[in-house]
Amino acid sequence: MTTTAPLGAEEEAGSPAVAPDGRGTAPRRTRSGNGLVFVLPFLLVFGLFMVWPIVQGLWMSFTDSSLALRDTRFVGFDNYTEAFGDPDVWSSLGNTVFFTVVSSVPLVLIALAMALLVHSGLAGQWAWRLSFFAPYLLPVTVVTMIWTWLYQPELGMANQLLTALGMEPVGWLSDESVAMWSVAALTVWWTVGFNFLLYLAALQSLPTTFDEAAALDGAGAWRRLWSITLPQLRRTTGLVAMLQILASLKVFDQIYILTKGGPNGSTRPVLEYVYDVGFTGYRLGYASAVSYLFFALIVVVSLAQFRLFRRED
């Protein structure tokens, strides 16, 4: 025996209503503020530790704020005008640009060569990967300690090797013409593993059909590398170059620990000059102005790289 429900019982039971054309109507969704609850902690942390320091530092750059004085006066663009005429700013900027050039180029080329070597199927893959990437995991203090011993004028392995070859010892950290190159060599050994990892991941994701087709047509290994592999790595090379240039422009740690900007300021980058002016000379307002000028330079370089790579694509 079958029974029939009274008219409207299904609607009262909560079943979906049926439109006149026979199709069910979708339930109406209501917006809620649950998403904001999950985002709010991040926004608070971001605003407290990122947005507020940026705003505070920008305001400070227009004042004569100092660690030695309690009173702060608004000085307008005086700090920026002084920074443009400060020879120490230009010399430290030159050191930064020089370090960026001599470190970024080998960091890109050596990382690419290392990735190609590993990707070629060389025996002992795990050993090569570990040896290439392991230095990147070391903290900067350990790295600078290792290379300080290597650069020791009398007991260091570098000068001992030169002496064994019949050459004169070199003041790796005391010679103004050599000190920045010594820091660049340390940086390449320490950070090339990250770029190597990016290139290796890109190589492993490349399709093999083009390379196999070229090999069947009789193209050699070098021809396939220049005509097939490297063009497919153009986007990765642009990314690695952009990240490396930005990282080199912001150099501070290894130089400050290894040479403290010496000898005679020949290795002092912009960020170390900002640190010296702000926390040694107590001129926080002037240091903020220099740092924001350098920030503007980094933004210009980033935008120029972005437009260049987008145009190539």
Automatic annotation (TrEMBL):
Keywords: Cell membrane, Membrane, Transmembrane, Transmembrane helix, Transport. Coiled coil: none annotated. It is found in: Cell membrane. It is a multi-pass membrane protein. Pfam families: BPD_transp_1. Residues 1-28 are annotated as: Disordered. This is Carbohydrate ABC transporter permease. It comes from Streptomyces plicatus. The lineage of its organism: Bacteria, Bacillati, Actinomycetota, Actinomycetes, Kitasatosporales.
